[in-house]
TrEMBL record:
Its main location: membrane. Keywords: Cell outer membrane, Ion transport, Iron, Iron transport, Membrane, Receptor, Signal, TonB box, Transmembrane, Transmembrane beta strand, Transport. It is found in: Cell outer membrane. Residues 239-630 form the TonB-dependent receptor-like beta-barrel domain. One of its GO terms (molecular function) is siderophore uptake transmembrane transporter activity. Belongs to the TonB-dependent receptor family. Residues 1-23 form the signal peptide. GO terms for cellular component: cell outer membrane. Residues 50-158 form the TonB-dependent receptor plug domain. It is a multi-pass membrane protein. SUPFAM superfamilies: Porins. This is TonB-dependent receptor. It comes from Bowmanella pacifica.
Length: 663
């Protein structure tokens, strides 16, 4: 395996619409972390050109993933510019990520997650990706901004599209590391003349850095694809995932500084489990050189069950969530002459969900205070027209969405209907100008929406929350000043009206936060310094403020929004000049943040972390040594509960040894 980083100067080839990858590697076969101003989407079989996205788009390929070993899959995004994390470390609710001035609290879902093109967000918007182990991931594509016409629900500030492997290979890997961590992964893929089959099995178990933090997870997936003709392919993807974990609880600030590895004494009965079941049918068909069709049908269920207690004086709760989703996606493109391209798509998702909460003592139910059974349905469609002439690429499109559903409160036996927002219309615009072979200018504009979830999405007396609109702008430059250095600099802003935020009283209700503004700038660099040295770096500066809180909250005007760090940065330095040995140094930095929209006396959450990795290629396999948090730096997640902060320390230094074998 090589860690040479190669940035493509002008376009990144990736198959957003296709079921398999056309361009998983750079032309020289090297691995890449790609920072690009656009992704060019290409049809799988006959090269039908489809669409271009102008903006901040990043790609991590297979070679940069296979030496990663993580408790939670979201950690695979650490190298992406502008991404930051909220590490709750509470069992099955462990870590969430955020971009573009939003927080990772889960209170403001804003990133659309897709796995093999299938939506994979829970009803509340949380991205559920833990069913994918690193060895099974082929690549990850991250789009920041709201200029992408393809997605509506949860695509408030961007999307993450994860693609699982469909290559021909057989490999196994085992790992042992700090905190009694054990892991085994196995992948087998075979591509026949017409029929291909791919299997993955993964298991991970650890005692955890903190006391009472044991974790165990297993996953199995299978993919079967049959090519009826050079123009038509059908496939099936199935996956099962199980995750069980203890929760170490939250500490006071004094306790977290005294002994960050301890567990809260009141949390000894906190634990949980979650499962994912998924099956999807995939179809794609090309007609001649002009049309490309892509369709998907899917069914999936996400189950989450946990016991949690926030403080020594608060009661323990049992929370159960079952999200059952089924849907269909149809996408097509057609070349309209030499310069014009037409895109269109339809998607539908039906959710049948259950959500209940109970007060418990030592995991024995005392009373039930929430019991919902509800449906939540989303129809969406889009069209886009793209024009290319000389150095210009211009595209404009519109997306429409509608919602329906009803909620039955099993405690009161009352039924509510989903708020009728009518048809939501979202315009999108992309512009790219290629000054020369080394310099591109880009700009985009888009409108996205924040949909209320839970009980407050359904009409009740005195409350009818509408979809909140976000208006996003971005402009920037992608420049390759030398043959070995590539860069991207962008400025962005998102404004919201009538932004919603969930109440913290456990009711599931929302309140109107008012008008907000998120703005910042991103700098991303990638370099091949010489045959032995390569690297990447990024820096994001951002600010998220409450610009107009409304009557009664005028004192909070101009306040920072909670959970948004002032900056985030990444660094990677890779040396491959020692024959078969590669050495990599990775840095991750994050600024501090406020823990309330209104109380702004203290800031928490900043950190500076360094990871060190060694990888030796035997030819038949690899041996890896990974040291995470090399300097054992203290870092934490902090939440304001009432008048006091509660703290969850993140992992200290950890050392992992891995060995893989390629059959």
């Amino acid at each position: 395996m090589t860690y040479k980083l190669k940035l493509l100067a002008n376009t990144v080839l990736a198959s957003f619409y296709a079921g398999t990858s056309l361009a998983d590697e750079a032309p020289d076969g090297s691995s890449q972390i790609v920072i690009g101003e656009r992704i060019e989407v290409i049809g799988r079989q006959n090269g039908v050109q489809q669409s271009s996205l102008a903006g901040s788009v990043d790609l991590i390929n297979r070679d940069q993933l296979q030496n990663e070993h993580v408790n939670v899959t979201v950690d695979l995004l650490k190298k992406i510019p502008g991404i930051y994390f909220a590490r709750f470390n509470q069992g099955i609710v462990s870590t969430d990520f955020a971009i573009r001035g939003f927080n990772g609290e889960g209170s403001m879902p804003h990133v659309k997650l897709l796995i093999d093109g299938v939506p994979s967000n829970l009803h509340l918007g949380l991205a559920e990706m833990d069913a994918l182990f690193p060895m099974e991931v082929e690549r990850m594509e991250v789009v920041k901004g709201n200029q992408d016409v393809r997605y509506g629900l949860h695509n408030l500030a961007g999307s993450v599209n994860m693609h699982s492997r469909r290559d021909q290979a057989s490999e196994a890997e085992v790992l042992y590391g700090s905190f009694n961590t054990r892991e085994a992964q196995f992948y087998h893929g075979h591509n026949g003349e017409r029929f291909s089959q791919h299997y993955f099995v993964g298991h991970r178990q650890t005692d955890g850095y903190r006391d009472h933090a044991e974790l165990e997870k297993q996953t199995f997936s299978g993919k079967w694809f049959y090519q009826l003709s050079p123009q038509t392919e059908f496939g099936v993807i199935a996956r099962y995932f199980n995750y069980e974990a203890q929760a170490p609880g939250y500490l006071t600030e004094a306790q977290s500084r005294q002994d960050p590895s301890q567990s809260a004494s009141y949390a000894q009965d906190d634990t949980g489990d979650k499962q994912t079941r998924h099956i999807s049918l995939h179809w794609q068909h090309d007609t001649g050189a002009d049309w490309h069709f892509n369709g998907k049908l899917y069914w999936q269920q996400f189950d989450r069950h946990r016991y949690l207690q926030y403080t020594a004086t608060s009661p323990q709760q049992e929370r159960l969530e079952k999200d059952q989703q089924q849907g269909a996606i149809l996408q097509l493109s057609r070349n309209l002459g030499e310069n014009w391209l037409f895109l269109a798509g339809l998607d539908y998702q039906a959710q049948d969900n259950q959500n209940s909460r109970h007060v418990t003592e030592k995991r024995v139910r005392q009373r039930t205070f929430r019991n919902w059974d509800f449906s939540y349905n989303n129809w969406g469609g889009y069209s886009q027209l793209q024009y290319r002439e000389g150095p210009w690429t211009i595209s404009g499109g519109v997306r429409v969405d509608r919602f329906s559903g009803e909620l039955l409160n099993l405690l009161s036996q009352q039924t509510r209907h989903l708020n009728d927002n009518g048809t939501t219309v979202l315009p999108k615009f992309n512009l790219l100008y290629q000054v020369n072979d080394d310099l591109n200018l880009f700009a985009n504009y888009g409108v996205s929406f924040q949909a209320p979830t839970g009980a407050d999405a359904y009409v009740k007396a005195g409350t009818e929350h509408k979809l909140a609109k976000n208006y996003g702008y971005e402009s920037g430059v992608h420049w390759q000043p030398t043959a070995w250095l590539n860069s991207r600099l962008s400025w962005w802003q998102q404004d919201a009206r009538d932004e919603l935020t969930p109440k913290t009283d456990g009711s599931g209700d929302f309140e109107n936060l008012g008008e907000t503004r998120r703005r910042g700038w991103d700098l991303a660099l990638s370099a091949d310094l010489n045959a032995d040295w390569s690297g990447f770096a990024s820096y994001t500066r951002q600010k998220a403020t409450l610009t107009e809180p409304g009557p009664g909250k005028i004192d909070s005007k101009g306040n920072w929004l909670l959970g948004v760090p002032a900056y985030t940065a990444t660094l990677g330095l890779i040396y491959s000049g020692l024959d078969k040995l590669n050495v990599a140094l990775y840095g991750h930095w994050q600024g501090d943040y406020y823990v309330s929209n209104f109380v702004q006396a203290q800031r928490y959450g900043d950190y500076r972390l360094i990871d060190l990795a060694f990888n030796y290629d035997f030819g038949w396999g690899n041996a890896g040594l990974r040291i995470n948090n090399l300097f054992d730096t203290y870092h934490e997640y902090v939440y304001l509960l009432g008048a006091e902060t509660i703290h969850s320390p993140a992992d200290g230094r950890g050392v992992n040894l891995s060995l893989s074998y390629h059959f």
